[in-house]
Amino acid sequence: MSLWSRITDAIEALRSGEPLSVVFDRLRQRPERTIAFTIGVIALGAKLAKADGTVTRDEVTMFRSVFTIPPEDEKHAARVFNLARQDVAGFDAYARKIAALFPSGDPVLRDLLDGLFHVALADGDMHPAEEAFLQEVANIFGLGQGCYRSIYARLVPGAAPDPYELLELPPDASLDEARRAFRRMVREAHPDALRARGVPDEAVTLAEERLKALNQAWEEVQQRHAA
Q1: Cα–Cα distance between 32 and 3 in angstroms, integer?
Q2: Which of 5, 8, 97, 148 is within CB 3.0–4.6 Å of 24 for a Cys-Cys bond?
Q3: What is d(CA 41, CA 204) in angstroms, rounded to the nearest whole number?
């Protein structure tokens, strides 16, 4: 049975009047945890898309792009998306349910935050409500300010990313410290590592852009130390 068929079954199991968030209470172990994670990703995307008061076509399109929803499964994802938008539970409730599936600060949570940044920036601008949303999600996920600033610097237009900030390091970090940070972050972001942690293929695409940025940051750090 495919991932999306299992998600559909999980939704169908909801009793009349039950919110989508109830699904998490029934899907705590593998492989069901993967279903819960995917539902949570879509739900957070839905909540973020309406954070600035309007759900735009660009935001929905970006969500489908960064999370790679196959065309034949878009109707299932759209159903989850709409149920999440209607759910009275706040985005923080979904963020906490997702966070409970992983250790605090887990790389999977970082990848999810990265994807949510893409959705927030789909219209080319970061609305204050969206920024507050993302900061709160980062806090709930147990990700430090260094992690949040790293993603912000890499993705937000005009942020002028610094290679040390991208590597979550202070500007006076040594080359050895930068090398260790770079290697750790590359390991965490590698698609094979994501799959090994049980992340669905729909989320693996999130790692590709981050890997490119990490490689560029590491090259810039090396150039600065060689100068």
Answers
A1: 10
A2: 97
A3: 13
